[in-house]
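Much of what follows relies on a compact textual record of a protein's fold. Here is one such record, which you should read through line by line:
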Amino acid sequence: MEKRIEKTSQSQKILQTAFQCLSTRGYANVSMRDIADEAGVALSQLNYYYKNKEGLFTEVVKMMMHQYLHEVEEKLKSTKNAKEKIASLVKYFNELIRKNPELLRLFIDFTAQSLWLPSFRRQLKNLFADLSEMIEKSILTGTVINKNLREYSSRSVAKLVLGALYGTSIQIMLDSDEDKAFDSLNLIGMILN
């Protein structure tokens, strides 16, 4: 039993270190050796737990996805009607950019990597599908939406909302006049009204 706890804590330490390294330096700038050194473990331990760089980073993606899904779900559950839910989703992305940009940067980095690595592609495709479904069920089901959007399925509108939030968040992170850039994020709620 003690060995299993030790293995889990060692594995978690490696995952947390990998998350920190990746979110501050990016996938292309982090090696397995960097993570091993920062985690204070032998490189062979990383290979033991995760086999290779892609295996380790796939686990980091899973951890990141779980965190995103949980946080978005909590935001959507905390409000009653569609308008409040949209506002809380916009607020979540505002807070993410301001208070936890590392998570968003990592999400952006893994999105780019998913264009090249099939294992990342599957995971990110599932994350986007899960988030879109969550938006669809929590906000759009039974909601009267903007008359210009009525001819589209609620799934398509949910994907539009998610894409607008995500894409606008990237633009804000790149913008040097961040305060004005947040205005564009706040406009997203108007899409459905």
In short: The chain is about 80% helix and 0% strand. The two ends are 56 Å apart (CA to CA). The chain has a mean pLDDT of 83. The CA atoms of residues 111 and 124 lie 7 Å apart.
